[in-house]
Amino acid sequence: MESPQKTFLSWPVVRQFRSGDFLGRGAAVTSPRTETIEPRTSTADRVVQSICPYCAVGCGQRVFVKDEKVVQIEGDPDSPVSRGRLCPKGSASEQLVNGPGRQRTILYRRPGGTDWEPLELDKAMDMIADRVLATRDATWVDVDDHGQRLRRTMGIAMLGGATLDNEENYLIKKLGTALGAIQIENQARI
Question: What is the DSSP letter of 145?
Answer without folding.
Answer: T
